[in-house]
Amino acid sequence: MALDRWIALIILGICLAYGYAAFFTMDQLLPPFMQRNPIWPSTFPKVLSVLAILTALIIVLGLEKPADEANTPDIDYRRLGDYHIYKALSLLGLMVLYALMLRPAGFILATIGFLAGGAIILGERKFHYLIPITALATGIVWYLVEGVLGIFLRPWPFFLG
């Protein structure tokens, strides 16, 4: 079995456990007034788990490839050094750094840094486009979360207020 199918099999196991939790354990603790709502807090996890299980099954069963390509593996695990592992690991490290810096640096600075850093890792070099676009995208997301949804999201570092 090819490496992509093994990875999909691992993801399938994780999604099955996540789906079990979403379908059978999340709804017992709901208060009675929420049990009559059409959309529960577990609705999105249920949809997400079903879609992820279907996607993983499609990859495990090999249905995403044409019949003539079914025997040729896409990823050669013996040549992992030829792939862009540095970029992938750098992006994972940047995600961890973003999660750690979100509270002390504030949403706006941490998100602009994450988006700009991710774009630089992936090869973007036009900084005169990169910084305004990431700032605009961050501002729009912050406004939607703070202003429209009404969820408090600290925009600036803690020492600025």
Layout of secondary structure:
Blueprint lengths: L2 H23 L17 H19 L23 H21 L1 H15 L5 H22 L13
Helix pairs in contact: 1-2, 3-4, 4-5
Description:
The chain crosses the membrane at residues 6-26, 47-63, 83-100, 107-123, 129-153. Pfam families: TctB. Keywords: Membrane, Transmembrane, Transmembrane helix. Residues 6-153 form the DUF1468 domain. This is Putative tricarboxylic transport membrane protein. With 161 residues, the protein is mainly alpha-helical. The chain folds into two domains: 3-68; 84-160, no CATH class. The chain is 62% helix and 0% strand. It has five helices and no strands. It has helices at residues 3-25, 43-61, 85-105, 107-121, 127-148. Helix 1 (3-25) packs antiparallel against helix 2. It is flat and about 55 Å long.
Notable traits:
about 160 residues; mainly alpha; 2 domains
Q: How is the main sheet built?
A: none
Helix share bin: 55-70%
Which spans of ≥5 residues are poorly predicted at pLDDT below 50? none
User: Which of globular, elongated, flat, extended, rod-shaped describes the shape?
Assistant: flat
What is the arithmetic mean of pLDDT?
Answer: 85
Whole-number tally of structural domains: 2
SSE sequence, one letter per element: HHHHH
- Whole-angstrom Rg: 21 Å
Question: What percentage of amino acids are in beta strands?
Answer: under 5%
Q: What is the straight-line distance between the termini?
A: 55 Å
Structural class: mainly alpha
| Number of helical regions | 5
How many individual β-strands?
Answer: 0
